Amino acid sequence: MNVRSRWLLFSVGLGVLLNPLNSSMIAVAIARLQNVYRLDFTVVSWVIFSFYIASAIAQPVMGKASDLFGRRKIFLTGLVVAFVASLLAPLSPSFGWLIVFRIVQSVGTSMMVAVGMAIVRIHITEKQATALSVMSIFLSGAAAIGPFIGGVLIHWWDWPAIFLVNIPFVAASFLLAWRTIPKDGPPTYALRNMSFRKWLDVIDASGILLFAVGLVALLVGLLSAKSSGHVSFWHVIVGLIGLIVLGAFVRHELKATSPFIPLRTFAKYPAMTWVNVEFMLVNVLFYSLFFGLPSYLQMVRHVSEFHTGILMLSLGLSSLVVSPIAGRWIDKSGPRPALLASGILMVLGSVWIATLNQSSPVISVCLALAAFGISNGLNNVGMQAALFKSSPKEIIGVASGLFNTSRYLGTILSSLLIGIVMGGHFSAGGLRVLGIILTAIALSLVLISRRRRESGQPDES
Predict the structure, then answer these.
(1) What pTM does this model have?
(2) Distances (CA, A) of 215 to 212, 246, 405
């Protein structure tokens, strides 16, 4: 790999890491934001919901937009958008404005994720596998150390620092990307002459709108009822509107020529569908712990943000260390043994969480985090391998998009689960209930893995 390719890889990596970094740093900021804005957890959890809903929509849309406007332009524009959002978020006059800037930040960072891998694939032709593995390290490493970085920043400079820390990354990435990413070629004749209405059809603007409105309405109905402590007429109405709109979304997607989420693919390839369902449940488990435990440590155990970040390192570092080992194991034995081991570890970790109380030693928390971290490392590789084995080669691009959608849905559902179980305030009792629910989900994953193995169900459809 020549020097220019290395600098290009570094510039893209600095931009791509901003999305996982900002999605993970917030885990240790929830308790501080509750105190600053005097809100309960169900309201503050929208800093999580908004980011992942926006990412789920923006990444596939910006991937399509890059075909029209160019990958270099999308990447550089994303850096500018992320810079503006990171600069303005600390100045938010209210929590509502913070959510707005969080959404803008998500869109900006998603623009870079959507085209980053493609830029590397197109412009780095030698040692491409090595380049892509380095990109994966930027993504997974940023997510792993995000809580630690967030804890350190909040401890020394308060919560605005988790936004301002993006600015040097953005500036460095922009300067390097401007010099190293080759200019985009002209769009094809078909793209150049595409009308705005046709472009809206290509990105399925109607489907995106139905998805966003339905999901937000359903979340508002459920979380508002839990936050207020009773179910009112308006909570029911808002929730029903959300369900109706989501039903309309499903009907629209089944008929759309270029659907936002190609639901017909699920019906056609059931093996791939099961992989996505499992991946969604895996992410419900992982992110319930990832977002729930830092708030529990700070609110119930009164652990500082700094020490919470250090404790969360046992989760991220375990995942990073296990991932390359998992790769070799899965290459040799296939994904099933690794996924079964992951499920067992998540059962043990969930049971451990259910037994925690205010006097439990810190090592108990670290053991639970390590169990989930190791399982996450196994899942990162194992679920991806299972997806490739269950998906026909001709639809692997669509399958990868659905896989990412499953990840985001699992993350959103994890935040919803925490909000419903905990309500406005975290408690040791609430954590025990959460641990019991996670144990049930983890057991279901183990049973699915064992049933498939014992039945000899093929991986390939």
Answers:
(1) 0.84
(2) 5, 7, 13
